[in-house]
Specification:
Largest sheet: 6 strands, antiparallel
Order of helices and strands: EEEEEEH
Number of strands: 6
Helix content: 10-25%
Amino acid sequence: MAIPEHMGKFEMVRSFVGYEDNLRMWGQLWLNRTGSTVGGWLVNSWSERGAPYWTPRMHWFDKSDGKMYNVILQIGRSMDLHGEDTNIEPERAKFIRKMLEKWELEWMQDEGKKA
């Protein structure tokens, strides 16, 4: 799947790392250059030492449509989207969304302190 045209209008502004119990995740916040609005998140999630036994999986969470897309990174070159992930585990999707809400709030609070 080709990268949507709007993807070229983003820039990465901040990285986050977090966990809850044995669930782990890192994410990068990408902003739309034209309007300084959140464009989306590049994330990787996995589990350690026990159920639910998730292997690492990367996703692009697109704020414009609220969907998670499969991602393949070409290190130093590009990020390729490979369609919406309709097979994502419901608990993984819930964990990702929960962490992104937390991180987005943290980022907005930090940005407010700069003003």
